[in-house]
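Let's see one such:

===
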Amino acid sequence: MTESFAWSYYLDFIYLLTKKEIKLRYKRTFLGLLWVILNPLLQMLIIGLVFQFFVPMRIENYFLFLFAGLLPWGFFANSLLRTTPLLVQERALIQKAAFPREILVIAAVLANLFHTLVASGVFLVFLTFLQGSLLSALWFFVSRLFLSAFFFGLFLLFVLATCLIVSAIYVRVRDLNFVVQLGVQLLFYGVPIVYSLSMLPEAFRQILYFNPLVSFIEVFRYLFLGGDLNLLASTIFAFLSVPYLLVALQIFRKESKNFDDWF
């Protein structure tokens, strides 16, 4: 099998696995893909009502602010929770067929990316209609579309790298699934989703910027809603996504040599 043919085969395989992931998630549901939009909307309404009225947040357009944070967070959290036990769940396929094991993780992350892009597209269209004129609306849509696609592409690499590392280590350390589930719940309040970084003391704010998720969420929110942005931190973490992915691939392939022993 030539290298070009192998890559063509693997791309088709990734596409089929991604399609399978999407179909299985909504199999036998009445609303189907509508849940892609309903999930973040319901989260926004419930969390927004709590923090807007019971714990008042002095943030303009708080529901839009919240929704813009929930989109990238949901992509990261759902991808991590899905891929952590994935290799063990698919051990029968891994033991029967010869293919790069990382393809399973890539397909699961791409399935979550599909859901996030659909919800983000609806959000972008809604924000476009809020512009004052047709010209400003057109410029808003085009500029945000390309800029958000660029940064979200880098965010995709970051999420994929994290999922590759965690899913590979889980095969050997099964406690990791419980750690990830608890960590995702706690991390939700450690990143600026329900609150703004400007509400925190400067010293604490600088510490939070060491978390790449903070920078990515802030960039995503800035592209859609404007506001403040730590350009240095956001740029550094965005472009570190590529070497981070390369390191993650090395870790994954090293761990994958022993998958059969740990299954």
Notes: The radius of gyration is 20 Å. The mean pLDDT is 81. Residues 3-262 form one domain. The CA atoms of residues 84 and 166 lie 6 Å apart.
